[in-house]
């Protein structure tokens, strides 16, 4: 392959690429419809001219037919008057008119065929233009939708979804770390104030009951809510009561030792 052939191919390829990049689909569609409209105008003009020529040929054809009929009548008149020479001349004029009419008839047939074809082409072109306009609007709508979707995808691509998810994961780890540090600080710092008050309240109930029990054993007044005292028979036997109290105190000490 020669150098000039390769160079020519490179130049054509670059030109084709530039043309492809410069093509705007919407403008190309608009221009295509405009070009088809101009073709339609030219076809209508040519069809109108062909129809005009056909009508003129039709008029000439009819005139020659009328002329032939007129000379035929004159030939008959001349024979009626006994003038054969004049009749012969009239028949010669008739023949000339008939020849012209026959020629015009052939031309008229050709023109009629041409006009019919042009009319069919005109109707077909009008249909194609109507279809092209409909497709143009459809393609423009699809083009705008495709361009909008392309811009959307580009924007979504530049949002950095991966980095955003990574940021959420880092924040989640940070929250968990702070919660762990807070729990550890609470455990190292001892009980909270609520828990301390709860223990104080629980301890106060035990102390109150212990004081009431001491007062009962020393023979003081019976506290409200205490158990009913023993019967008179039990009081008359101090030795048995002392043994019962000692046994109860022993049980209480054992329960307290188990709690500790």
From TrEMBL:
Domain of life: Bacteria
One Pfam entry name: PspA_IM30
Coiled-coil annotated residue ranges, if any: 91-188
Keywords per UniProt: Coiled coil
Family: Belongs to the PspA/Vipp/IM30 family.
Full protein name: Phage shock protein A (IM30), suppresses sigma54-dependent transcription
Organism lineage: Bacteria, Bacillati, Cyanobacteriota, Cyanophyceae, Oscillatoriophycideae
